[in-house]
Amino acid sequence: MGNEVGSVTGGPAGAEGVTDALLAAVEDTVRAVVGAEVVPRWRRLADADITEKNGPHDLVTTADRIAEERLTEQLGALLPGSVVVGEEAVSADPALLGLLKGDDPVWVIDPVDGTSAFVRGDPGFSTLVTLVRGGQPLASWTYAPQLGLFATARRGHGACLDGKPLRTATDPRRLRVWISNPVFRTDDERASLARLADAGAELVPCLTSAGLGYLEVARGIADAVAFFWEAPWDHAAGLLLVTEAGGSSLTAAGEPFRVPGGNALPFTVARDEAAARRIMSTLLPDAEAVRR
Questions:
Q1: Is 82 helix (H, G, I), strand (E, B) or coil?
Q2: What is the CA radius of gyration of the chain?
Q3: What is the third-level CATH fold of 176-291?
Q4: What are the start-end ranges of the H helices in 53-121?
């Protein structure tokens, strides 16, 4: 059986080998771990529970660490032969990113996406899990416990929010774009986003969770996300969620966004290909590749 995706839990397999039973088992696991290790710590963190990684806006908490440890253990048990690329584990050992280029199924985990929001007591945080193989996202799980939202996607089988199918927006006149937190932006990023605003886009700062920004696109509330970094745990789940809801991704090289990394930045994941090209051609007006 080895590392055949879906072979452990049985049940009908999808086009990429992810079974219905595995999809449900992972959802149960995520709900249980978050319910035990994240939710009880929300608005109850002590100073000793919070640590800066690369500055005051890049935080990690006890909830991040313990939830990732529990998810790593339990997801690995659901799919023997699989490996894990978690945000906190990679922070300690960047070489783990190389696992995304291997042949084994990989669980990509962001235990608390939007840690700063979590620390502030803001409900806008989520837990993101994606099953990836050969650089291809096969299934994803996005859970926002304090908002009561749980979204799943399976490659070739669509995306759902709380069991109901998701579809991206269809109004070509609107361009509502979620963008990164202002505190992280460089001068070049600010200039690019100013061009997008001047072109008529409504820019919504993503002050909480990147994963929730993707969910807004998948459910048709927003039309796109635009980002200037490519950490796989921030983007893998949302990439599959929006794509399966009918959307499209585009990088500065005019190519789809790839999970293993090495993408030309910035990039967008949008409601459709036309919106993606409109955004990228505005962000990078001299880049011929994004207009093809």
A1: coil
A2: 18
A3: D-Maltodextrin-Binding Protein; domain 2 (3.40.190)
A4: 62-78, 87-92, 115-120
